Amino acid sequence: TGEGCTFLSGSKNHHTQNRDVPMALQGGQIKRIRIEDDVWIGVQCVIADNIGTGSIIAIGTVVTSPIPEFTLAIGNPARLLPRS
């Protein structure tokens, strides 16, 4: 893991169904993030979902959905490129 990475409790974890109640009062759901083996995460990444085995997360990438194994993820939000 590179310097300055942020690991959030998961994507889409705030309840927002009731528009008459502030989000902070609607509660939420904490989700564990699972980072599999042999994963490289570049500096300043934001990780909010699972990352599969052998994947590479490029510098500054924002992960908001699961990353399959052996995938290169780049950008904000993460764009997936298969590793060859």
Radius of gyration: 14 Å
Order of helices and strands: EEEEEEE
Instruction: Tell me how many strands there are.
Output: 7
Overall geometry comes to elongated
| Poorly predicted runs | none
Strand residue content: 15-25%
The first-to-last residue Cα distance is 22 Å
Number of helices: 0
Describe the structure.
The mean pLDDT is 90. A hairpin with a 4-residue loop joins strand 6 and strand 7. The chain has no helices and seven strands. The strands form two sheets. The protein has a four-stranded mixed sheet with strand order 2-4-6-7, with no helix packed on it. A three-stranded parallel sheet has the order 1-3-5, with no helix packed on it. The protein has strands spanning 6-7, 40-41, 46-47, 56-57, 62-63, 71-74, 79-82. It is mostly beta strands and 84 residues long.
Give the topology, please.
Blueprint: E1 6-7, E2 40-41, E3 46-47, E4 56-57, E5 62-63, E6 71-74, E7 79-82
Parallel strand pairs: 1-3, 2-4, 3-5, 4-6
Antiparallel strand pairs: 6-7
Short summary:
The chain has strands spanning 6-7, 40-41, 46-47, 56-57, 62-63, 71-74, 79-82. It is mainly beta.
Keywords:
single chain; mainly beta; 3-stranded parallel sheet; 7 strands
